[in-house]
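Changelog note: in this version the structure field was regenerated for every chain. One regenerated record is shown below for reference.
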Amino acid sequence: MSAALTTLAETWIRNGGSGCSDDAIRDRLRQMEKESGSKLTAAERTRLLKLAAALREPEPSLDESGIEELLHEPEPSLDESGLEPEVPAPSDVDFGPAIEEPGADPDLNGRARTQGAAAEEPGPYRLVPIDWEPIIARGIPEIEYVSEPYLPARKRIWGVGAAEAGKSIWAASKASELTRAGLIVVYISQENGLEEEIRRFVRLRPDFSNLRLYVDQGLDLALADHVAALIEVSGGAALDVIDTLSACWSGDEDSNAAITALDRDVLLPLIRETGTSPLVLDHTGNPQPFVRRRGVSAPRGASAKGQKADFLLEFRATGDREFQIAHAKARGARKEPLCTFQVVDGEDGALDVVEIETPADAKTLALADDLVEAISEAGALTTKALREAAKKLQAGVRLQNAAIELLEAEDPPRVAVAREKIETESGPRDARVWRPTGSGDDQLALGDEL
C-alpha cells in the first residue's frame, strides 16, 4: 500500500477525473500503479471509485470531512461483515500460498463488477448498467486471447474427449508454453497421478516459477471452501486447468441444474475474482446443443455443459501420438478449421506438441459436420448460402465440393437437397435447397443474396 499513490489518485479525481466513467478511472488507476511501482489495495480502489461517484453528482454528497472519513476509514474484515467469511481449507489440502491481490476484471458487465466489489467491501447489492460511453468511444471490444485460437481471456473453455485423446498432454503443453511467455498458470490434476505429472512437466519444460501445479490434493469444487481456496491461489493467473471435471467435482454430471450451479458458483466467480480463464477437461458422452452432433466426442452428461461453455474443444485420437482438435463452439469468435497435432520427442529428452497437416479426408468430414450444423440451425439453406457458410470456415472450393458430394452420398442421409421455388426480394426463382432429413417442405423465403 502506498500513501503517496493514494494521494496522487485522489488529486487526479478531484481535478476532473471524477467526470470519467468507472472503467476509465480503473484504467487510470492501473496506469498510476505501473508508473509508481506501488499497488492499491482492493479497498483503497473501491474508496476512490466512491469518491469519484460522490463528486460526480450535481450537488456533491460529501463535504471535506466526509471525504476524509471515506478515504481513511479502516479496511473491512470479511469475517466481521458476514459476507463470504473466509473458510480455511482442510489441513490435509495444501493449495499453496495465498495471493494478496487478485487480477482486475476488465469485463464490461457492470453487474459482474459490482458482485466482485461486494466481496471486497460490505454494502447492499445493486445492479449497475453497462456504461455505453467508453464502448461507443472505443468501439465494440474484440475478444482477447490468452493463446489464439483456442484459449480466450476470461472465458469458460471446455476440452472434451475420450481417454488418450490428447486432452491432458495438449493442456499441459499449452500451460508450459504460457509460463515460458511469463504468464501464470494454475494446473489442478487429480487423474494422472504425481509421477506422471512430474515426468510430463519436466519434459515439457515450463517456467516453474510461473506454474502452480496441484496434484491429487482432494479438491472438490462442490464444496464452497474448496472453491474459495482455488480462487485464492488463482490470483494473477491467466489460465486454470481443471483435469478432469469428474476427478475435481462430486456433483451430478447428468443434472442440468447441477452443471448450471457449477457454472454459476465456481467458473463465473473464478473468472470474476481473478481474471483467469478456466479450462475444464471432461470425458466424452452425449451430443450437445449448439455444437456439432458428434455424440462420441461431445461432453458426457447434462446438455448444460455445451450451453454454458464459451469455447468447446473436441479432442480425437487419430493415430500413434496424434490427435485432432475440432473447434465445436466459439462464442463471439470464428471457429477454427479442424487441426491435427502430434506429440514429438525433442532434444535432451524434451517433449513437444506440434501442429501437423490435417489429412484431406478428415477435413472433408469435419466440414460436412459443420454444414449439417448450419443447415439444422437455419432450417433450410440454398447451395449458395451453404457455400457462403463454408467460406466463413476458411474452406476452399475443392473442400466445399468434397463435403457437398459427401453429404449427397450419405446413407442414411442427415440432410436432403431438392430443387424448389423460393421467394426472393426480386421475386420467385428456382434454387437447390438443403434441409435436415425429415423437415417440412414449407416454401422458403430468402433474400437475393442467397
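Spot check on this record: Residues 256-274 form the longest helix (19 residues). The radius of gyration is 26 Å.
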